């Protein structure tokens, strides 16, 4: 189907074989004896070189073959004398699908900054860095589906438009209706949007969890994998307004089963990338080393693939929030007042605290459990009272990763109707809005658990990219939605 792609040619093609390649020009180089055109079609990091003889094509054609132009090259595969490539294409014919005027085309063969590339998000997939990231992103998404399919989970599509605020944090985008025809305008002439979804209040989902729970209480094991939206105005390297989340939800799983699944799952998908994205990971590893050249040895990060292997080969550290607070309180930065945010039992951990635990104290991924009830969502199962903690806790778990902080958040869910209803009242949720959620606890309720993995944070970890805006093709953050 379609033309043969460069990755297939490099894997299996034989010398002497006729080929037709459709791809974009990366570079063109002319010497006395030959013209070399380096072509890439995005199927692989590697380019294939097409070679023409001087005078073989008219000057008027050659002039249009510049970086960024799109070509169809017809020729024969021959052994290459150049280093780093086994074969090249001896050109017989060329057709120019589209030119790219070097005066205007912003992607010239030189190193561009990530900030600059963010401004040209419509063209950045044509660079080595971004095509490598996008191929790895694809492989990780595929591995997610494979993992759950192989482990007896069903993919459940949960709604994007919803009336509930699953996280109860009020960080939602409201859905409005624009009437067909001439829209109503207010007295200043501005379009007057209706603040509703056909007469009801509705938002873009912040999480598919609540609907996922309905699925788990029927199909036992489900997962969602869809876009989620958060109207938090945070300009950080770890937050997006639109991100993708994977949310498995399992009946008959307690918190320990939930942790076991989270660890096994995240190790599986990272291992999948290590096994299937060798070239792209090596490229990003070299890129990272290049970027860190100017830093002193002690501040450089572990080579990318070594870091990934370390994570898949070692057990994550598991401890309670209460134990973590003790470690933090006894830590140097706490004693020397070097944390920006004060730490004591009851506070929500800030990224600096999470990173201290993971990067300085344990030096590996950490799963924190049993957080204070007061800082977690209403649906989390309340722990039996214990002497260890000064106030009630819930069966929550957060998985913290080096360089990232929180990558997964989850919990065992409150399955007891009365306790859940009390929590709903306590946090001020209108029970009429989530009557359907409460009913699952009335009819055949069951212990169950689940979690959410932020897909972009995973891609960030695997690719080693510092900014979350560089691991999603079209990032959405405050003031970004240009297309
Ligand atoms: O911790 P969160 O808010 O948990 C939930 O949404 C639960 N309903 C999940 C569940 O139990 N089914 O979000 C889960 C994960 C975080 O750990 C983080 O990785 C990611 O989603 N995340 C974000 N990623 C990018 N940008 C944001 N603004 C994010 N907010 C959360
Ligand atoms: Mg969380």
TrEMBL record:
Residues of the Aminoacyl-transfer RNA synthetases class-II family profile domain: 134-473
Record Pfam families: tRNA-synt_2, tRNA_anti-codon
Coiled-coil regions, chain positions: 274-301
BP GO terms, sorted: asparaginyl-tRNA aminoacylation
GO terms under cellular component: cytoplasm
Documented EC number(s): 6.1.1.22
MF GO annotations: asparagine-tRNA ligase activity; ATP binding; nucleic acid binding
Gene3D superfamilies xrefs: Bira Bifunctional Protein, Domain 2 (3.30.930.10), Nucleic acid-binding proteins (2.40.50.140)
Subcellular localization: Cytoplasm
Record flagged with keyword Transferase: no
Keyword RNA-binding: no
PROSITE patterns: AA_TRNA_LIGASE_II
Catalytic activity, as annotated: tRNA(Asn) + L-asparagine + ATP = L-asparaginyl-tRNA(Asn) + AMP + diphosphate + H(+)
Subunit architecture: Homodimer.
Record family assignment: Belongs to the class-II aminoacyl-tRNA synthetase family.
Record's protein name: Asparagine--tRNA ligase
The organism of origin for this protein: Persicitalea jodogahamensis
Gene name, Swiss-Prot/TrEMBL: asnS
């Amino acid at each position: 189907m379609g033309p043969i792609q460069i990755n297939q040619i490099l894997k299996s093609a034989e010398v002497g074989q006729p080929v037709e390649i459709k791809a974009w020009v990366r570079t063109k180089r002319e010497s006395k004896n030959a013209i070399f055109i380096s072509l890439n079609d995005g199927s692989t990091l590697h380019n294939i070189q097409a070679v023409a003889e001087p005078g073989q094509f008219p000057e008027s054609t050659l002039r249009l073959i510049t970086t960024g132009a799109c070509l169809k090259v017809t020729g024969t595969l021959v052994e290459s004398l150049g280093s780093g490539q086994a074969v090249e294409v001896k050109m017989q014919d060329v057709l120019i699908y589209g030119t790219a005027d070097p005066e205007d085309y912003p992607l010239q063969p030189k190193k561009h900054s990530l900030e600059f590339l963010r401004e040209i998000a419509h063209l950045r997939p044509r660079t080595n860095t971004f095509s490598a990231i996008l191929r790895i992103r694809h492989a990780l998404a595929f591995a997610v589906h494979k993992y759950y399919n192989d482990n007896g989970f069903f993919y459940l599509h949960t709604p994007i438009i919803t009336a509930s605020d699953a996280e109860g944090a009020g960080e939602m985008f409201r859905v409005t209706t624009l009437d067909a025809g001439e829209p109503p305008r207010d007295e200043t002439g501005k379009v007057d949007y209706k603040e509703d979804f056909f007469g009801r209040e509705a938002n873009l989902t912040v999480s598919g969890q609540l609907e996922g729970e309905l699925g788990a209480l029927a199909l036992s094991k489900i997962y969602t994998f869809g876009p989620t939206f958060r109207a938090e105005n945070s300009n950080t390297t770890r937050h997006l307004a639109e991100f993708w989340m994977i949310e498995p939800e399992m009946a008959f799983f307690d918190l320990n089963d939930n942790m076991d699944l989270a660890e096994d799952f995240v190790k599986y998908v990272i291992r999948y990338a290590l096994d299937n994205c060798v070239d792209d990971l090596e490229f990003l590893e070299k890129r990272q080393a290049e970027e860190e050249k100017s830093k002193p040895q002690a501040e450089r990060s572990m080579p990318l693939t070594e870091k990934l292997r370390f994570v898949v080969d070692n057990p994550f550290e598991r401890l309670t929030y209460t134990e973590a607070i003790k470690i933090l309180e006894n830590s140097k930065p706490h004693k020397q007042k070097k944390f920006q945010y004060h730490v004591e039992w009851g506070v929500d951990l800030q990224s600096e605290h999470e990173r201290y635990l993971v990067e300085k104290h344990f030096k590996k991924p950490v799963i924190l459990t049993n957080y204070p009830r007061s800082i977690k969502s209403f649906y989390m199962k309340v722990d039996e009272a214990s002497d260890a903690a000064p106030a009630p806790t819930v069966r929550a778990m957060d998985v913290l990763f080096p360089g990232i902080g929180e990558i997964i958040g989850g919990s065992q869910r409150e399955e007891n109707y009365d306790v859940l209803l009390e929590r709903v009242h306590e946090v001020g949720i209108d029970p009429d809005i989530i009557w359907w959620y409460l009913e699952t606890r009335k009819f055949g309720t069951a212990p169950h658990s689940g979690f959410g993995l932020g897909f972009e944070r995973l891609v960030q970890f695997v690719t080693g990219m510092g900014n979350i805006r560089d691991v999603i093709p079209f990032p959405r953050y405050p003031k970004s939605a240009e297309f």
